Amino acid sequence: MRLLHTSDWHLGRSLHRVSMLEAQAAFLDHLVETVRDRGIDAVLVAGDIYDRAVPPLAAVELYDRALHRLADAGVPTVMISGNHDSARRLGVGAGLLGRAGIHLRTDPAGCGTPVLLSDAHGEVACYGLPYLEPALVKDEFRTERTHHEAVIGAALDRVRADLADRPRATRSVVLAHAFVAGGEPSDSERDITVGGMSAVPAGIFHGVDYVALGHLHGCQTVTERLRYSGSPLAYSFSEANHRKTMWIVDLGPRGEISAERVDCPVPRPLARLRGTLAELLEDPALDRHTDSFVEATLTDPARPAEPMARLTERFPHTLSLVFAPERDPAGETMSYAERIGGRGDQEIAEDFVAHVRGGSGPDEREREVLRDAFDGVRVGEAVRESAGRSAR
């Protein structure tokens, strides 16, 4: 049986306020084309369909069109809810959608009830484990401990109990939305540590032929039988070096696994650039990034004038600007008292300006402003002192 494993669509999400809906639509076009062109027998979507519990209307419309196209293709689709989704909202109409071959698994109580698929070699039992928030599902699974390993372990006990009542030749697939130990996270996944320890050991999935994981945005292989598809698009600059793909997994007659990565469309690459403003504007090696989404980290000791405007002249799609001035390492080891020892007020103020600018002190105009300010303070103190003596 040939399975297409994807996850973490995050429909409705933006990248630094740039809408990704057009790119998400292009990905879903690619998904349907892959289903039709590569002889896919079933599609597995391992959670985080939407980016938030109440998604924007445009994202819902995109999801609706995708479901219709998958149903028209006649290929069964199994989907679970992730930690970004509202399980109750996503699961509305699940019974009716199931008749069209779109099988939504959003209710924790149904973890042990599979979608039964079949090929020439027999049945494949496909179990959907939606995201299980320990504090919310501990009563359903009657676990004494409130953490992810406990509730996922209890859900898998139901899976294995159901499998035990089926013919021995039945192959098994589990969809799960979780952080499995050994996976590599990025900056764009929402933390799931609330409710207890977040990571679960890979061994908890023992006895299952293939586990289609969602949650982490980088495509990765935890073990031969446990894989993350990752998100189809980059949703943070920490994913700039990710190769965005889906997995095509061939499940053999005795549960053998072979897997192939299928690249997703890249609407616009991401680039993280670092250096002084002059370096970023003048280095010819950076020409290849002119059409990329850019995160620029400026290392100038003093903040340059109009950096974003100047950067966007060369890199029109600059989305993020970070200042990280390179400082004198020797100066960082000195205490504040050592830095100001033996200096007057004017010198201390000038040193402070140099400190916050990473070593670049005030120019002559700024020194004049500081002198005027200190002169004003001294005159004010003298007037107040004279007035005090007169009053006495």
From TrEMBL:
<dbReference type="GO" id="GO:0006310">
    <property type="term" value="P:DNA recombination"/>
</dbReference>
<dbReference type="InterPro" id="IPR041796">
    <property type="entry name" value="Mre11_N"/>
</dbReference>
<keyword id="KW-0235">DNA replication</keyword>
<dbReference type="InterPro" id="IPR004593">
    <property type="entry name" value="SbcD"/>
</dbReference>
<dbReference type="Pfam" id="PF12320">
    <property type="entry name" value="SbcD_C"/>
</dbReference>
<dbReference type="GO" id="GO:0006260">
    <property type="term" value="P:DNA replication"/>
</dbReference>
<keyword id="KW-0540">Nuclease</keyword>
<dbReference type="GO" id="GO:0004519">
    <property type="term" value="F:endonuclease activity"/>
</dbReference>
<comment type="subunit">
    <text>Heterodimer of SbcC and SbcD.</text>
</comment>
<keyword id="KW-0255">Endonuclease</keyword>
<dbReference type="Pfam" id="PF00149">
    <property type="entry name" value="Metallophos"/>
</dbReference>
<feature type="domain" description="Nuclease SbcCD subunit D C-terminal">
    <location>
        <begin position="267"/>
        <end position="355"/>
    </location>
</feature>
<comment type="function">
    <text>SbcCD cleaves DNA hairpin structures. These structures can inhibit DNA replication and are intermediates in certain DNA recombination reactions. The complex acts as a 3'-&gt;5' double strand exonuclease that can open hairpins. It also has a 5' single-strand endonuclease activity.</text>
</comment>
<protein>
    <recommendedName>
        <fullName>Nuclease SbcCD subunit D</fullName>
    </recommendedName>
</protein>
<dbReference type="InterPro" id="IPR004843">
    <property type="entry name" value="Calcineurin-like_PHP"/>
</dbReference>
<dbReference type="InterPro" id="IPR050535">
    <property type="entry name" value="DNA_Repair-Maintenance_Comp"/>
</dbReference>
<comment type="similarity">
    <text>Belongs to the SbcD family.</text>
</comment>
<keyword id="KW-0233">DNA recombination</keyword>
<dbReference type="InterPro" id="IPR029052">
    <property type="entry name" value="Metallo-depent_PP-like"/>
</dbReference>
<feature type="domain" description="Calcineurin-like phosphoesterase">
    <location>
        <begin position="1"/>
        <end position="218"/>
    </location>
</feature>
<keyword id="KW-0378">Hydrolase</keyword>
<dbReference type="GO" id="GO:0008408">
    <property type="term" value="F:3'-5' exonuclease activity"/>
</dbReference>
<keyword id="KW-0269">Exonuclease</keyword>
<dbReference type="InterPro" id="IPR026843">
    <property type="entry name" value="SbcD_C"/>
</dbReference>
